[in-house]
Amino acid sequence: MRASFVAIALVCLSGCLPVSTYYAEGVTAVQFARDDTNCDVQALRDAPVANQTRQSAPRYIPRRACDSRGNCYNRGGYWVPGEIYTVDVNASLRARVKGICMSDLGYSPVELPACPRGVAEASPPGPSPVLPRLNSNSCAIKTDGGLRIVTQG
């Protein structure tokens, strides 16, 4: 029950979170998609996925017992093995390689706030055909085809 509540809350909040992307004024959506994909491919080629399986430290869980007078004492205990998880040790390197590639093509990393619901509902569907000039009123809408940037004023 708690897990489903958390999942629903994350889905609802995801529309409110800022959107991180690369930006270059005047670039078409088609060109951006091509550049973004080419840089993803280059980054994956130069810094391939390198998963490592790791295990966190085991924990000792003491057993505490109390008598009717409130005297408590430890009575043995048990060990819980550490959690096993996977880490891609090249993930941050891959992100840096992509950033360099996008920068070489004239893009800059930007973080835009999510557009308010009314702005998102009034905007045409799909990504921006051309990346507009940004100002302090710019916001982003995630679409099925990419990202729509709305600049008001």
Task: Lay out the secondary structure.
Elements: H1 2-14, E1 19-23, H2 29-46, E2 51-55, E3 59-66, E4 72-80, E5 84-88, H3 91-104, E6 108-112, H4 117-122, E7 138-143, E8 146-151
Antiparallel strand pairs: 1-6, 2-5, 3-4, 7-8
Question: Any key phrases for this structure?
Answer:
8 strands, disordered N terminus, 153 residues, alpha+beta, two-stranded antiparallel sheet, single chain, 4 helices
Q: Main beta sheet: strand number and arrangement? A: 2 strands, antiparallel
Radius of gyration over all CA atoms, rounded = 24 Å
Unreliable spans are: 3-14
Spell out the helices and strands N to C: HEHEEEEHEHEE
As laid out across the biggest beta sheet, the strand order is 1-6
Instruction: For the record, give the distance between the C-alpha atoms at the N and C termini, rounded to a whole number.
Output: 45 Å
Q: How helical, in percent, are the residues?
A: 25-40%
Summarize the structure.
By secondary structure, the protein is of the alpha+beta class.
